[in-house]
Predict the structure.
Amino acid sequence: MRNQPPRPATVTRRTMLRASGAAGSTLIIGMALPTPAAAAEALSPQQREMVLQVAKAGAIYPIEVPSFGEPGTASSRVTVSRLRDAEVRLQPARLAAIRAGADLLISQGLLAAPRPALLAGIGRAAATAAPAERQALVAVAALGAATVSRHLDPASDSPATVWIGGLAHLHDRGVQPSVLRHLETR
């Protein structure tokens, strides 16, 4: 038995906790459980649903978002899991703006609205919004865009500002946004 090489140590959760002591276990447990502040910053189920609706509408309007190598159609990539992945990349102030923007759309009766009514409602809200409200709508659209494509930054306003501005412009001109029929079924 002396000539055998030593067995490599197996690191398990139990050996890690035993080696790290009480302070280490508190750190590990603290990292696994969300803090009350983090839970307070999260979107409510209704706000998440509103962002998902905006993401689905933006996935195909005015054109379908390219895949950039991701599998599935743009609409099929709009999932709660992908939304949460994008959401955790945001700072608390950005999440607060998204909550405000989602609440604005919800207050205007757009939760569960059909896509044409949703697009028109977003345009109306953006056209009549105060600057802070419009920025909140842009933040919602940016999170929606990052849900559709992981290559987009949920904290970047660039594509979302153009999209929200375009819908506001259509509203100002009295034009109803319309999705291409073959994309509505996706």
In short: The chain is about 65% helix and 0% strand. Residues 138 and 160 are 5 Å apart (CA to CA). The chain has one domain: 36-184. Residues 5-37 have pLDDT under 50 and may be disordered.
